[in-house]
Amino acid sequence: LSPSAAGNLHPGVEQKVVxxxxxxxxxxxxxxxxxxxxxxxxxxxxxxxxxxxDHLVFKIAPMLNPDGVYLGNYRCSLMGFDLNRHWAxxxxxxxxxxxxxxxxxxxMYNNPKINLExxxxxxxxxxxxNGFMYGNIFEDEERFQRQAVxxxxxxxxxxxxxxxxx
Length: 166
Fold this sequence. Notes:
The protein is α/β, with parallel strands linked by helices. It has a domain at 15-127: Aminopeptidase (3-Layer(aba) Sandwich), CATH 3.40.630. It is 37% helix and 13% strand. A 3-stranded parallel sheet has the order 2-1-3, with helices on both faces. It comes from Turnix velox. One of its GO terms (molecular function) is metallocarboxypeptidase activity.
């Protein structure tokens, strides 16, 4: 990626960031495949991948629970924590990956030269078919509608994605 082509990497220019995390639950192996597919696409020579790289910075944490994955756990870390339940106050000692990711998000939020455009946390479901998304509930109708754009686009362009299940 040449610096001249990447408008988002010029000094002093606001960086638009997409942050992606996966595999907070060790048993959700499909999330690793989805994350790997995203990475493979983003580094490819596909014209859309190039446009995305030219306009966005992608920060990707492909495995938030490596110790739980290594141990073959289904939901918990080495210490028996379901990490997805500790985002509010992650401990640097007990939940180091969450603590690091949350600190990075806070640092980006506090940096006036960075705009976190999108956060995707990839999971898998033990019984639901197709791809689907959960989103936040906002009282502000504009924010609520804005977060629905991505799932609606996926539904129109990916036959394995179900907007109805989102």
